[in-house]
């Protein structure tokens, strides 16, 4: 069995901030981008990393660049330790 390397990378997001500024409920945003309210909820809590397609849909909805909402957080490469 081949084990995948764990880099510890993550993605932070500002979905909550953009949603609140737009005066949208989680359900309203979810409907606009084609996901469930639960998906928006867990994404805002940082427990879900969206697919690239969903990240682009959200950014497009708010008319901003993906990197304005989503930030890549580099982890530690196991080989670097």
TrEMBL record:
InterPro entries: Cro/C1-type_HTH, Lambda_DNA-bd_dom_sf
SMART domains linked: HTH_XRE
Keyword DNA-binding applies: yes
CDD domains: HTH_XRE
SUPFAM superfamilies from the UniProt entry: lambda repressor-like DNA-binding domains
Every HTH cro/C1-type domain range: 15-69
Matches recorded under Pfam families: HTH_3
PANTHER family the record matches: DNA-BIDING PHAGE PROTEIN (PTHR46558:SF4), TRACRIPTIONAL REGULATORY PROTEIN-RELATED-RELATED (PTHR46558)
Listed name of the protein: HTH cro/C1-type domain-containing protein
Organism: Lentilactobacillus rapi DSM 19907 = JCM 15042
């Amino acid at each position: 069995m081949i084990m995948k390397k764990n880099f510890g990378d993550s993605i932070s997001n500002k979905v909550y901030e953009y949603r609140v500024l737009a005066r949208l409920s989680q359900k309203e945003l979810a409907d606009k981008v084609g996901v469930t309210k639960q998906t928006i909820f867990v994404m805002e809590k940082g427990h879900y990393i969206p697919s690239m397609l969903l990240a682009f849909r959200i950014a497009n909805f708010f008319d901003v660049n993906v990197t304005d909402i989503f930030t890549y957080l580099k982890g530690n490469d196991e080989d670097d330790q």
